[in-house]
């Protein structure tokens, strides 16, 4: 078996990068932000909505139907709340929301975040291009459905059905190492 010696390109490129970085007139290059590549923004938006599991919360019955629902029912929100220490929140009707917001307002809203259980750290990680693709796809579906109920504070009982997201039996989490052996 013949062994080949690998050439490490970094050893040759690093001095060039260093020299280029030392030029006083060189503008810093912004880091590339990944974005979904698709034939159109609508296809990228649809893909992101599907793999992001958006309909799992944004439409009652999506999970039970194993995702076999027509686009006409997608993203219309839910009257079933998500209750936790923050109170009770509801999945908004994104089809109505995108028709109330400009694209710039949509991107800013996604960056600002909101109530759980929406995975806001993941949403904030979207590139602007992906956030805009989602906006354009959802908006292309047209307005449909009703507004979701308003959030309910932590001290009030919601009048709607809700999922209780308060963890139970946290004492069952991993114990310190000394008690695990007993």
Q: Termini, distance in Å?
A: 53 Å
What is the total tally of β strands? 3
Give the amount of beta strand, in percent.
Answer: 5-15%
Average of the residue pLDDT scores = 83
Share in helix? 25-40%
Order of helices and strands: HHHEEHHHHEH
Shape: globular
Q: Regions with pLDDT < 50 over 5+ consecutive residues?
A: 1-29
Going by helix content, strand content and strand pairing, the class is mainly alpha
Work out the radius of gyration: 24 Å
Task: Count the domains.
Answer: 1
User: Tally the helices: what do you get?
Assistant: 8
For the report, how would you describe the main beta sheet? 3 strands, mixed
Q: Widest sheet: strand order? A: 2-1-3
Features:
three-stranded mixed beta sheet, 8 helices, about 40% helix, single chain, disordered N terminus, about 180 residues, mainly alpha
Walk me through this protein's architecture.
By secondary structure, the chain is mostly helical. The protein has one domain. It is built from eight helices and three strands. It has a three-stranded mixed sheet with strand order 2-1-3, with no helix packed on it. A hairpin with a 2-residue loop joins strand 1 and strand 2. Helix 4 crosses helix 7 and helix 5 packs across helix 7. The protein is globular and about 50 Å long.
Can I get a quick summary?
This protein has 182 residues and is mainly α. It contains 8 helices and 3 strands, in the order H-H-H-E-E-H-H-H-H-E-H.
Topology (SSEs and partners):
Blueprint: H1 9-22, H2 41-51, H3 54-58, E1 81-84, E2 87-90, H4 94-100, H5 103-112, H6 120-124, H7 128-140, E3 162-164, H8 177-180
Parallel strand pairs: 1-3
Antiparallel strand pairs: 1-2
Helix pairs in contact: 2-7, 4-7, 5-7
């Amino acid at each position: 078996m013949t062994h080949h010696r690998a050439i490490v390109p970094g050893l040759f490129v690093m001095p060039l990068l260093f020299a280029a970085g030392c030029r006083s007139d060189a503008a810093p290059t912004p880091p590339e932000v990944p974005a979904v590549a698709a034939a159109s923004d609508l296809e990228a938006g649809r893909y992101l909505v599907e793999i992001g599991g958006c309909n799992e919360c944004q439409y009652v019955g999506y999970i039970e139907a194993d995702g076999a629902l027509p686009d006409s029912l997608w993203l219309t929100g839910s009257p079933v709340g998500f209750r936790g220490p923050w109170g009770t929140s509801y999945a908004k009707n994104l089809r109505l929301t995108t028709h109330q917001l400009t694209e710039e307002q949509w991107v800013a809203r996604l960056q600002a975040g909101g109530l759980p259980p929406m995975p806001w750290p993941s949403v904030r990680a979207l590139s602007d291009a992906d956030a805009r693709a989602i906006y354009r796809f959802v908006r292309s579906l047209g307005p449909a459905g009703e507004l979701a109920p308003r959030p309910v504070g932590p001290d009030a009982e919601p009048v709607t059905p809700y999922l209780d997201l308060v963890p139970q039996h946290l004492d069952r989490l991993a114990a310190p190492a000394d008690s695990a052996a007993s």
